[in-house]
Structure formats: structure tokens, C-alpha cells
Amino acid sequence: MKYNIWLVWVAAALAAGCSCAGRKAQEQRRSCPSLEKELSVYWEGHDFQTLEGFSDIDAAEDKFDGFISLLSQVPHETAVTEMTEFLDSAAQNVVAYMVWAGWFEPFLHAKESPYRNDSLFVAYLDKALEDNVIDDGYMVEHLQDLRRFMNVNKVGMQPQDVLLKNEEGVEFQLSDLKGEHVLILFVDADCPSCLAALSDNVKEHKDRKLVAVLVNGSPYHMSNIRKQLSEEVLAPWTFAYCPQGRLETEGLYDTSLMPFRMLVNPEWIIEKSYF
Predict the structure, then answer these.
(1) Would you kindly state where each structural domain of the chain is located, as residue ranges?
(2) Which CATH superfamily is domain 163-273 in?
(3) What is the pTM of this model?
(4) What percentage of the chain exceeds 70 in pLDDT?
(5) Residue 16 phi/psi, 5° resolution?
(6) 214: Cβ–Cβ under 8 A, 6 or more apart, which residues?
(7) 187-229, pLDDT tens digit by residue?
(8) C-alpha separations of 159 from 124, 245, 273 in Å
């Protein structure tokens, strides 16, 4: 998928005469009253009954990008209403619906997306699962997993507890780290960007206890990481994996976005997540 959406977002924001970033979002909504009107007619003339709109897949994605950009700049209630109407229209063609549905996740849930919006993504998941249009069992299961993830490990909540084992073979509960400022980084030993994250976070979070949890990990995977990184990078980290496999089998954490990290305070409350 073409994923250079940052530049597209900037262009859309400039064209609308406003930006939807940061604390100014509410002010921009008040200063851009035409956005809601533009959104209400955005799909006017689009034939939802056929696949003609996908003859040029890049143009179709650009069209969807513009739609998400508008949704990100209007009040939540308006965005949900317009998204619901869009999905109702898209349901006229099952194949088209599944294509559109496949784009909501990278636009609204991916960490690097400028449109990332948990509340709107939850509204999408609820609608898509309620519609029951998607007939692919794996995709439905994936949406159900994502919906469950959105209910746990949120800012202001305690992280899901799980039994881990460190490199020395010592078992401990994740919650045993309570009382410290902790960065928890979920990684895959075979993921290049995860290895890079280990290095980057040493520099970025020198004042925190650093814990790297290997998903689908084992002593072998921890040893393999040690062969690829310098001692300077490795020294600050506590490496661990889940010996019982609960991390993977019970879906305690959203590991679809690895490297996935959380900041947890000494009271064992999540301060920041999905960043």
C-alpha cells in the first residue's frame, strides 16, 4: 500500500486553510465551518454498487485519504455519523466494502499515521463488526482482536499483568516493576525496526527502567539479539519473554504494531502508549 500519507495530509490541511495537529484541533474546527459541509457531500456521485472506483487503486486511496483527513478535523460525533453513512453505502458491494475496511486500520490505528484516532477507530470496529458484511473469517477475527485490544492497556489504566522470565531464567510478574518509572518495549527478535528501537530508546529514555519483552520469544531469541547489538545498547535493558505463552495465545497486548512501547509510572499506571 502506498503509505506516504504525511505529505498528502499536509496538502489537504493547507488546501482547507487549517491544520488538525495538536492542541489547536478544537480551534481549527471552529475556524473551518466549511469542513462539515464538504464532508457531507464528499462521496456525492460515487457509485458504491460497482468496483469502478477502484480502476485506479492509487486514486481510490487518495480519495479515501481525503475522507479520513476531513473526519480528523470535525467533531467526533460528526465524524462517526459520516463514517457510518459511508460504510452503509459501501455495504452495497461486499468486495468494495472489504477494500475500504482494510484501509481504516492503517489510517486510524497505525502509530505513524497523522490521523491516528483511538475513539474513531473503535467506532469503526464496532460498525464493521455490527454490519457483518465481511465474510472472511481471518479478517473478522482480526477485527475482534483489535476491538478487544482497544479496551485494555489504555492511558490511565494498569498494564495487563503477565508472568515473564529473564535471561537468567528468573521468573517475575510484570507488575513486580511497580514503584519505578518503566518503559516496556514489545519486540520481535527478527524485526529490524525492533532492534533499532532498542537502540533509540536507550538514548530517549535514559531516566527509566528499560524492559524489552520478546513476543514469541525464547532464550535462543534473547541470545540472538545479543549477537546483533553492542553492549552499550544492551546493558540498560532487562530482556524477558513469556514462558507460558499467554502473551501470544491470550492476546494481552496489541503485538500487531511492534515495536510497541508503553510508559508506566511508579503507581503502575500507563502514562503513554502507541507511540
Answers:
(1) 5-149, 163-273
(2) Glutaredoxin (3.40.30.10)
(3) 0.77
(4) 88
(5) -80, -10
(6) 187, 188, 189, 221, 222, 225, 239, 240, 241
(7) 998 889 999 999 999 989 989 999 999 998 899 999 989 999 9
(8) 24, 17, 10
